[in-house]
Inverse folding.
């Protein structure tokens, strides 16, 4: 008998996953605490059945994919053994992986569990922002745990393939360290900028009128869902703080050069930034390599 | 006899202006130190004549529009009286306005001069990135000087209208203060982030693979032309430094909250940023009002 997939949390990530999986599954269930979201997902034919809470009749044939904010995933994983005494399959799409994978390792041996994180997103949250193409050609990290069985690994790989993701296998710790720099730091930088300019706008009404695509793009992340971000910060602050310190140091150097109006050193500082962007851009337009367990 | 327009500097801004003005003018000249750029602009029919240096036979019928980096504009303005002893009309598209308008005020009384700055751009420089639609529905600041005649003001307004810009009249000092926050600070924030992540990428080769649209958009400005940015920093550092200090303070608060893992205060900090973005977004999708000399 096949595993029966249930996506828990039908927001941007879970809703997009359900939409992308839909053509590949005869049956797909959804869980969301918001009734309206369930109704929308049912009406759109994205799920076949929906409930507001984790079903009580879970069996080893159930494959639960958690797509809620990180701390909700941790809470649900802790409750899972009482809902499902015989175990089941578990995967997640949480933005940080160490705390979640540690919680997965604590599940009884009857559970099979693997961490997942698609490297994509939008600053808009909710089912209405969900999109079947969200994962297309984007990196999808799988972080195996001691609870990852061969059958679950194969199924997780199958899911990544179905939704068009680029599989990257990576330990949870490295994932959290890298994402702290490539995702969490950009958010914090963007949110700090947004607060700084918004404060000015309160006394200078023409501020927004004087802004172009630069401010628009650089502050886009500041619009992200605070609940999702809070959970990321609380579960990954130890990886984020060193990157923030490095950022503050480079910013401090800039302030010194600017205060001294040091033309030559400023020119070098600017070139360094442009050089970084150019080397990053080279990777933006060449899709990441498939990295798997030597079998992909 | 009509004014004969010459655009000086056929990069992104000047090239775009020439393209946008082209349908409205019987004759349009261009100046660029790069011969290949001149040949491209001539071949594309964007200009009727091109030279590598300011023409020597300038007359009061010439209308020069400077579209080079700020310090080059300052240098050319200083040389102008020897090129054109009888005066002419002058406008510019420079990113900072105080030093340029001050230099315009120093021109002999036979010159008519006005500062200009279209609030738009791309992180790509050069004629090949130029686009006739660059100014469409974007704010275009005009900063009148004591050298601004009524005839020049009318012509400058006409140009803004032809290229589809939204006219905003503003004193040079306020322009520079607001742009320091809405344009120069975002660039510096973006460039600092780019340097921080690029440094990590040198030791962690999977860094770029772990990046999504968030890092891409937040570091877009870091790819800007260093020459243009250097001139902005050197001519506007006094307006930029207070905004940088405000930014550093908000970032410092964040580091404290994150170090303390203060869940409630972090949640409020995140909400504040999202609130700022939402109020900014409301203005993004309603075009700025026309603000002129009571006649527009």
């Amino acid at each position: 008998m096949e595993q029966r997939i249930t996506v828990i949390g039908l927001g941007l990530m879970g809703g997009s996953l359900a939409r992308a999986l839909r053509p590949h599954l005869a049956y797909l269930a959804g869980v969301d605490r918001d009734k309206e979201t369930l109704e929308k997902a049912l009406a759109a034919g994205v799920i076949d059945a929906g409930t507001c809470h984790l079903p009580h009749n879970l069996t080893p044939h159930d494959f639960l994919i958690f797509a809620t904010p990180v701390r909700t995933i941790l809470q649900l994983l802790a409750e899972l053994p009482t809902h499902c005494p015989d175990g089941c399959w578990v995967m997640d799409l949480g933005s940080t992986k160490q705390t979640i994978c540690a919680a997965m390792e604590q599940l009884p041996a009857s559970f099979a569990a693997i961490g997942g994180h698609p490297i994509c997103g939008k600053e808009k949250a909710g089912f209405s922002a969900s999109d079947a193409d969200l994962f297309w050609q984007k990196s999808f990290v799988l972080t195996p745990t001691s609870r990852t069985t061969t059958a679950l690994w194969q199924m997780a790989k199958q899911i990544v393939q179905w939704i068009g993701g680029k599989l990257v296998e990576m330990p949870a710790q490295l994932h959290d360290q890298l994402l702290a720099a490539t995702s969490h730091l950009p958010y914090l930088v963007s949110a700090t900028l947004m607060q700084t300019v918004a404060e000015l706008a309160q006394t200078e009404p023409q501020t927004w009128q004087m802004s172009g695509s630069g401010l628009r793009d650089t502050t886009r992340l500041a619009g992200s869902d605070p609940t999702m971000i809070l959970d990321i910060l609380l579960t990954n602050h130890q990886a984020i703080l060193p990157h923030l310190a490095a950022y503050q140091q480079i910013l401090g150097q800039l302030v010194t050069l600017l205060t001294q109006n040091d033309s030559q050193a400023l020119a070098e500082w600017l070139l360094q930034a442009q050089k970084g962007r150019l080397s990053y851009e080279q990777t933006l337009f060449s899709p990441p390599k498939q990295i798997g367990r030597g079998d992909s």
Remarks:
- Confidence is low (pLDDT under 50) at residues 288-296 of chain A.
